[in-house]
Amino acid sequence: MTGATDDSRRTSIARELPVVGERREVRLAGIRVAGRRRRPSGERSSLERDLRGAGRFWLIGGIVMIILWISLFAFPASADWWTRQDTALLRRIVEIRTAALTSVADAVALLGSEWFLRVLRIGTLLALVFLHRWRHFFAVILAILAVQASVELIGYLIGRPRPFVPIIGGWEGPSHPSQPVAQLAVTLVAMAYTLLPSGRRRTWGFAAAGVLVGALICAQLYLGVDNPSDALVSALYAPAVTVVLFRWFAPESAFPVTWSRGVAAHLDVTGPRGDSISQAVRDQLGLEVLSIEPFGLEGSGGSTPLRLKVAGDPDQYVFAKLYSSTHLRSDRWYKIGRTILYGSLEDEVRFVSVRRLVEYEDYIQRLMNAAGVPSAEPFGIVELIPEREYLMVSEFLEGSEELTKAEIDDKIIDDALSVIRTMWDAGLAHRDVKPANVMLNRGRVVLIDVAFGTVRPSPWRQAVDLANMMVILALRTDAERVYQRALLQFAPEDLGEAFAATRSVTLPSQSRSSLALLRKEQGIDLVEEFRRLAPPTEPISIQRWSPRRLRLTFGALIVGLLGIGFVVLEFLGVGVL
Amino acid sequence: MRRLALTVIVFALATGGCSNLGLGQADCTSPDREVSAANILTIQAVPTARYTPCIRESRLGWDTVEWFAEDGRAGFKISRSITPFLTAVVTPACDITGATQVASGEPDIERFEDIESQTPEIGITIIPSSERALARSRVIVDQLDETEIDGRPVVFTIDEDAGDRVRARVNLAFLFDQYVWIMSELDAEEGKVELRGKNLIEPIRGLTPLEALDAIEDNVPDVFYKGKWYFVFDGGCITYEFNATGTLAETIAEDAEEVFGFYPARFVVEGARDEGLIIE
After folding, report:
1. pTM
2. Which of A23, A417, A424, B29 is the most exposed place for a label (fewest CB within 10 A)?
3. pLDDT digits over B16-37, tens only?
4. Does any CB of chain A come closer than 8 Å to the CB of residue B22?
5. Measured between beta carbons, which residues in chain B are less than 8 angstroms from residue A73?
6. Residue B32: its pLDDT value, please?
7. How near does any CA of chain A get to the CA of B262, in Å?
8. A312 and A364, same domain (yes or no)
């Protein structure tokens, strides 16, 4: 990235954006602003979609299943009718039984056998572990447990006897719904959802699953172990539950399946979402989007960062961060993890909605700007799906580079430390001062990614921000030099406090790895050097115990033990898979 | 769509009572041969069996926790305070190796038992080694008559067969799960005994009878009733597998005799046919 616009330009964009009306078309800082459009009441937001394809199919399947259930068990007359139809069909099948067909049916029935399903399920889970697809891993377990438990419960609640024809196959429990058909269906659908990329491959996967489930149904009916209505309900029920669970717990939009190893938690911005972003940015900010591309994904886990090319003279880039409920959940888990590991060092209260999350980040960004902390100019929030998906658009710091990759002189050191000083004076903290977030833009130090910023932070947090900035600066220079420059803006006691508060956990992982590399290659321990330079200060404890931390830790232990128990039971062959 | 789904579910629940849903119980006493799904599934699991296990009457605290049926076996488990203590299962045949035949009370059913149990009674055999000790033993038995340990009666036996060696007499007593008090001439003089028991690591010498009873109280095994009853009949076998301890074990055999019965499989078939469940 290189330096973007100068201060006057940024201010002019921010000032002019709110007054650009629908019929106007102006150019601001070279960016063509075509005018905005208010979404009238009742009109859907651009990304909300009707159910399509598979969703509609399974919805209809679910309704058919419920009607079938009611007619099967709610009214004696219809139940009797179904029993007669089931029995009549099975009797016709019984008439065609031959030794050869029975052998085939016995073989096909193995599709629903316990060992075959275990092989499929454990194989799928191992593949997901190998691919680091934890969300899908848990989605598979959840789907299997949900279908297994519900089918078993329904079976015992209904208590339907087996068909009244000679039964020549193995069976277990009540007849309705068919356990083997449900188990095979949930397994195959879950496999298609987690192992096959969306599109043609997955469609073929579903088709193959349909064929296998159909074959198992035929075998079950031939052997006389299931009524046709039992098998039909299972063939509808299990996939419907699986589809709903996957759409809720691991939606394709948030957890796309690819055949490459690694985490793919960022949202896909091609296709409908890309179109929606273009339309929403045009409607709500009046900017004509020419292209959308992911930007700096490796440095961001809490959002999907994007670079948007917008029409102008010449065309320019703006920066955008896409937030969805997936990111909201990540934020919650991150905070729970921090609370368990370190206690409540500071505000770890979770956001209740994506809207609140982006509102907070937008507020902090504007506050930083107003306080004189050099950071990107916010252009506004764009709504993609109300309450669920938002885009934060801001200035793109074109041509910027990480401070740790730039040549650093005393002026830059002073500038960087003055950023911390400004935040201290304004009662703010960034809370994520790491190399990737401290940029050099046209000779000036700029802070980016202020999402974790906070107002009126604890003195401990302010001290940690200072220590982290000094570490970044010393990575490119040396501790003595940075310390001496810091004394121009901070008291020696401040510097002592900063490194008394520093622990491994207070250092961002990027800084930690750079420090480890320096220690390994040159034998230099920067933190220790700073501690030696600063006045002796008692280490500041970072562990805070609270009832919430105890509860969360206890809960995590229970979940962990259950997980271990689950694995052990699976190895012992008495698990649920 | 949500309203539609909700309406359908409410409607289904509201009308659910119109139909015979659920497994029901394997009840021996259905006067009009009203059959439950559990009955039908049981005869489907073992079509050859002439009888299926059923429950004549309920017992306070006995719960049917798990009913099961699969091709070749069907039955149910009975629990108390969540813990299953009895499993009833019907199979086409059963292995009665090692079991002892007892009277079944039914003309067409044979009964076998293979049970290991600890009765509530605590048996103590006194082995006196001299005439004086024998006389002293009799006094002790008279004094401790109707003694109880934790509410369990203590029954004394004096081994007067002085001809055998002490070790052989002790082993014989152990065979019958008895504690042993050995009383020597000196012990008789001092009014003391030597306590031995199967579950005692080593003999304890020089105890007064009351001290010996205290020592037994600390070591006495729980009452238990474990093992199987087999009821073998034409085309099948019903097995009751017991695993009861504590107070439950004291009465379980007696209770099981009263609670469980045999439901003729043909009644199930006829009942199912009458209810239109079996389509001719």
Report:
1. 0.66
2. A23
3. 433 444 566 666 765 555 677 8
4. yes
5. 16, 19, 21
6. 56
7. 20
8. yes
- Of the partner residues A59, A74, A171, the one whose CB lies closest to the CB of residue B70: A171
Residue B280 tokens, joined: 């001719």
| Residue A285 covered by a domain | yes
pLDDT category at B261 given cuts 50, 70, 90 is confident
Contacts of B44 in chain A (CB under 8 A): 161-162, 167
ipTM for the complex shown: 0.71
Is the CA virtual torsion A274, A279, A282, A285 positive or negative? negative
Q: Is the domain of A346 the same as that of A225?
A: no
Q: Do A59 and B1 touch (CB under 8 A)?
A: yes
Residue A43 is assigned to a structural domain of this protein: no
Amino acid present at B246: G
- The length of chain B is 280
CA distance linking residue A282 with residue A297, whole number of Å = 24
Compare A22 and B140 and report the one with higher pLDDT.
Answer: B140
Distance separating alpha carbons of residues A452 and A300, to the nearest angstrom = 12
Number of domains into which chain A is organized:
4
Q: How far apart, in whole angstroms, are the C-alpha atoms of residue A431 and residue A451?
A: 9
State whether A31 and A77 are in the same domain.
no
Query: What does the pLDDT look like over B133-143, one tens digit per residue?
Result: 999 999 999 98
The pLDDT confidence band at residue B146, using thresholds 50, 70 and 90, is confident
Domain identity same for A79 and A155: yes
Q: What is the DSSP string of B262-274?
A: EEEHHHHHHHHHH
Closest approach of chain B CAs to the CA of A106, in angstroms? Answer: 15
Q: Catalogue all structural domains in chain B, each as residue range(s) with its CATH number.
A: 24-117+224-274 (3.40.1000), 122-219 (3.40.50.800)
Closest CA to A408 of A320, A462, A330, A481: A481
Instruction: Return the pLDDT at A465.
Output: 94
Residues of B with Cβ-Cβ distance to A173 under 8 angstroms:
68-70
Is residue A508 included in any domain, yes or no? yes
Q: In what order do the strands lie in the sheet with B122-128?
A: B148-149, B152-158, B122-128, B179-183, B193-196, B204-207
Q: Which domain holds residue A297?
A: 7-35+263-395
- The reply to whether A454 falls in a domain is yes
